[in-house]
Amino acid sequence: MTDQTDGATPPQANEADAATRVSEPAFNLPAGLVAMLALLVVIHAVRTYLLSAPLDSEVILNFAFWPARYDHPLADQTLAWLWSPLTYSLLHGSWEHLIFNGFWMVAFGAPVIRRIGLIRFMLFWCLSAIAAVALHVAFHWGETIFVVGASGVVAGLMGAAARFVFSPSGRISRQFAHLNRRLTVGEALSNRSVVVFTGIWFLTNFLIGLGVFAFGGAGGIAWEAHIGGFLFGFLLFGLFDPPQVSTAADRLSKIGDRTENA
């Protein structure tokens, strides 16, 4: 926004502003996030259009998360018990399921990957996927229902973003949210915007757990995995936040405080 005085804005300024608006891309997603979304689309397209039903069942058997694996001696199984707590996050139950997760991944994954970079983002993906199904299996030990989808990771990204995306006014800047100061857990729980966002998120998931409504086109929703992912992102995001980014954000915050108090 440009502050204007009583006079009209000079023509040159109007032309410059117009040129800036024209050159601004409609979608400015980080390349790493686009690549991740493309990978999910390719995997689901191959499963849907190229694999036979028996072969796709083999994919699910070997790469989806299955709580029943851990109720049996691991020595009597394939190594799927080792990689499936991660690979399940790359599979989806339907196009609707994938699109739903992709939408929220764009919204919350973009500021996170801009802040922590691709390598840390991939590590965050892996660990949040594991944390999500760790809580799920605690509630569903020994069950024979397969779990697929990146929802637990998306929930982790939401939890991580809640630690820094909200400005002091409570709004989210799409382009600059990743530059905000990271709140401590205590500060986040004292921030009205974070509390409202988190409260609505948990209420929605509890309603999903009660069967009030469902999203994503899946036959069932592993809402406990959502909570596991969110808690991981919210409580442990500081472990992934680069020190230099956090320090720069703190400096910007202090400058902003001095400006507001002047």
Count all strands and give the number. 0
The secondary structure category is mainly alpha
Return the average pLDDT rounded to an integer. Answer: 83
Low-confidence stretches: 1-26, 255-262
The H/E string reads: HHHHHHHHHH
Using only C-alpha atoms, the radius of gyration works out to 21 Å
Largest sheet data: none
Give the proportion of residues in helices. Answer: 55-70%
Give the amount of beta strand, in percent: under 5%
Q: Rough shape?
A: globular
Number of helices: 10
Distance, first to last CA:
21 Å
Tell me what the structure shows.
With 262 residues, the chain is mainly α. It is built from 10 helices and no strands. α5 packs across α6, α5 crosses α9 and α6 packs parallel to α9. The longest helix is centred in the middle third of the chain and has 45 residues. It is globular. The two termini are 21 Å apart. The N terminus and C terminus are likely disordered.
Produce a short descriptive summary.
This protein is mostly helical and 262 residues long. It has helices at residues 11-23, 31-49, 53-63, 80-87, 95-139, 151-161, 185-190, 192-209, 223-236, 243-261.
Give me some keywords for this one.
disordered C terminus; 63% helix; single chain; mainly alpha; disordered N terminus; 262 residues
